[in-house]
Amino acid sequence: MLPFWIALQFLSSLPIRLPGMPQPQELGRSLLFYPLVGLLFGVVLWGLNGLLDGTPLLLHGALLLSAWVLLSGGLHLDGLADSADAWLGGFGDRERTLTIMKDPRSGPIAVVTLVLVLLLKFVALVALIEQQHGVALLLAPLIGRASLLGLFLCTPYVRPGGLGQALADHLPRRAGRQVLAVVALGCVLLAGYLGVFALLLSAVLFFWLRQLMLRRLGGTTGDTAGAMLELLEVAVLVGLALF
Q1: Structure confidence by residue, pLDDT tens digits, 10-24
Q2: Is residue 231 part of a domain?
Q3: I need a labelling partner for 98 at 20 to 30 A (CA). Which of 106, 119, 192, 213 fits?
Q4: Are 79 and 223 in contact (CB under 8 A)?
Q5: Which residues have C-beta within 8 Å of that of residue 72, sequence separation ≥ 6?
Q6: Contact 103, 195 (CB under 8 A)
């Protein structure tokens, strides 16, 4: 179960402390458990949604979104902000884009992007609460974290060394494809036609974003992976709210 704890420690703000640095093989296998962490997030949010039943609608949505951000520690929002700055400031140049992504400072494009994404998530959550589509709280974090597994399965990692390289090099690929198949089946069983719609919408956005990464960078980085997760989550929420 060590790979699961590695995944949970990396993807969440929960107080998990592992003794020592995991072996590269364990880091690679931890990717297989990313969807399970997403499902765990979804269960927590779904449970909180039930506890907040009867709360004023806007406050209900705001508390759910706050809990969502706190669960992940804002990790993927940081990747989205860095990617937004780099994509505009990189002017189409690979090396400049990669350099900007390493800069810890956030420019105005990053701030605007974060505000827009969080605003869309909030409004979509309010609409879903009103429509009583609580299953979206299970689907969005599950699909979002499964997308990280899918991205590392089919996309080169462009920064040599470090955690991302270990994940990419030691990911068990056959098991990864099997996990993604189980996730797809689980989404359909959980939500029926809503699950099918969420999967199709996510797949279209996934391959479009992947193509953008390949064209600009030749692959992915940790920041672009985080950006993809956030964009898929907001797409699922907005899509289900409109469906």
Answers
A1: 999 988 888 777 888
A2: yes
A3: 119
A4: yes
A5: 11, 12, 13, 41
A6: no
Residue 166 pLDDT: 84
Residues of the domain holding 150: 37-242
- For residue 152, is it within any domain? yes
Is there a contact between 228 and 147 (Cβ–Cβ < 8 Å)?
yes
Closest alpha carbon to 67 in 83, 52, 56: 52
20 falls within a domain = no
Region 60-86 average pLDDT: 96
What is the rounded CA–CA span in Å between residue 108 and residue 112?
A: 6
Altogether, the residues listed in the chain come to a count of: 243
Nearest of 52, 1, 50, 76 to residue 231 by alpha carbon: 76
Count Cβ atoms below 10 Å from residue 174 Cβ, excluding itself: 7
pTM of the model: 0.96
pLDDT tens by residue, 165-197: 888 899 999 999 999 999 999 999 999 999 999
Query: 194 with 139: CB under 8 angstroms?
Result: yes
Instruction: For residue 217, give the 3-state DSSP assignment.
Output: coil
* Residue 150 falls in which region: left (phi positive, over 0), alpha (psi -120 to 50) or beta: alpha
Number of domains in the chain: 1
pLDDT at 137 over 90: yes
Is 22 a domain residue? Answer: no
Identify each DSSP E strand in 2-150 by its residue range: none
* Alpha-carbon 48 to chain mean position: 20
Burial 83-100 (b: 16+ CB within 10 A, else e): bbbbbebbeeeeeebbeb
